[in-house]
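Form 7-S
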Amino acid sequence: MSRIAHLFSLAGRTAMVTGGNSGIGLAMARALGLAGARVVLVARREAELADAARLMTDESIAAGFRTCDLADDGAVARLCHALTATGDHIDILVNAAGVNLRQPFTEVTPAAFDLHIKLLAAAPFFLTQRLAPLMKGRGWGRIINLASLQSARAFPDSAPYGAGKGAIVQLTRAIAEAWSRHGITCNAIAPGFFPTPLTAPVFDDPVRSAANAAQTAIGRNGELEDLAGITVFLASDASAYITGQTIFVDGGFTAK
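Output:
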């Protein structure tokens, strides 16, 4: 085992995780940190970021944070400029920030639709546009996007969210096509149903939650720890020949 463990080590790497203050983003950030990466959490709410970074520091993970509203025009440029100014070289970018307002189709406003697309598709695009050239200069990089069950199928009251999550699958391919020849891979993780603030309305309904569990091949909904292995794999040298792919971590939900 020790002869291949180095393939999964992230020692010496720095990972930036958007939406890393809670839910799936925090779980992915923690996994990267436990694999040896230094972690920079990015989100809007400073108090939550500070709490998340403190939790990871308590586990001997080198963790810091930066506040940023990724839906704000110009925020990505300011964030990347600040990283450069402080000498933060991002090796691994995880685009996990998101929102799902769960509105009926006829009630979605232009502003609400815009917000979903900015967070789910535009922010990952422009972060990659800024950071990938720097990764290219170092000859190595990993970009992990967050897709969804709604990248492949529709759910009620989530049309803008589904549109953004459909877009991220194609963006993952586009990033891979543009940058993989320079040592930068890009893949997406599409989680099934996991308990997070975004899915609270589902898990708060025992009937819906049980129905989703029954839809899986494994027979249960996801636990955040289920995302650790795939996150580290896609961020490490172990996945060097995998790029442009969307991997469903859904207990077989989409297989049935």
